[in-house]
Every structure is written in structure tokens, then in C-alpha cells.
Amino acid sequence: MISFDVVSLFTNVPPTFTIDYILDQLYPVCSTNCLQLSKSKQCVDCKRRIDFQTLLEIATSKTHFSFNNKRYVQHDGVAMGAPLAPIIADIFMAYLETTLMDELISLGVCEWHRYVDD
Predict the structure, then answer these.
(1) What mean pLDDT do residues 42-65 have?
(2) I need a labelling partner for 35 at 20 to 30 A (CA). Which of 4, 25, 92, 109 fits?
(3) Which residue range or ranges hold the Reverse transcriptase domain (predicted)?
(4) Residue 42: predicted pLDDT
């Protein structure tokens, strides 16, 4: 049995990468490549992708927290206690698992279980 413990996951999740991954899963690359065009000339999916990207960036990157009556801006990862933090962390871990699963199997890992605590 091997234990893979992720320490301080929320503050170590790369939000930009995870947001790009989410967007790629929801809105695959446009065949007309209109993301570079002005918004009025973009297809509906590209507009939705950009709008959703903006919302995710605001919700994950533009966050702050308080400690000892002082306000701090979270520069790396997502802020602990942020409503989207567990979801973003879970999506990133799912990406890692799917990316690394073939390699783990080739190394002899027969079974994989994910345990999530607080």
C-alpha cells in the first residue's frame, strides 16, 4: 500500500492551469478559431468560454482573506475557505489521476482509492 498525501492542496493548486483545463473540457477548441476575433464576431461557444473564464478568474484569483484583523490577497493557489476551493482542488486532482493513471498501472499499481478529508 502506498499513501499519496497532498499537503496544503488549496494553496498549491495552479488556478490558471485548472481554469484552462475546465474550459477545455466544457468548450473544446473552436474549429473556426474565432477566440482571437472581437467579441461581436465570435461564435456562441467562444463567447460563453470567455465569459465563464472571466467568472472563474474572479472567483478564484481575485480573492482575499483576513488574519489577525489584516486583509491579505491570495497570490498562489486558491484561498482556503473560498467556496470554489474544494471544487477546483478536486478537478485538479482528477486531472492528475487521469494523466498519471497509465504510468501508475505500468509501475504495478493495481488499485487506486482517493480519500478526501478536510
Answers:
(1) 85
(2) 92
(3) 1-118
(4) 84
| Position 85, amino acid | A
Q: Is residue 2 part of a domain?
A: no
Q: For residue 29, what is the DSSP state?
A: P
Cβ-based neighbours of 68, under 8 Å, separated by 6 or more: none
The CA distance from 43 to 116, in Å, is 39
Q: What angle do CA 5, 59, 65 make, to 5 degrees?
A: 70
Is residue 75 a contact partner of residue 63, using CB atoms and an 8 Å limit?
no
Residue 4 included in any domain: no
Structural domain boundaries enclosing 58: 10-106
Residue spans of alpha helices (H) in 27-76: 44-61
Average pLDDT of the chain is 83
Residue 22 has what pLDDT?
Answer: 95
Helix (H, G, I), strand (E, B), or coil: what is residue 73?
A: strand
Residue with cell 493513471: 101
The number of distinct structural domains making up the chain is 1
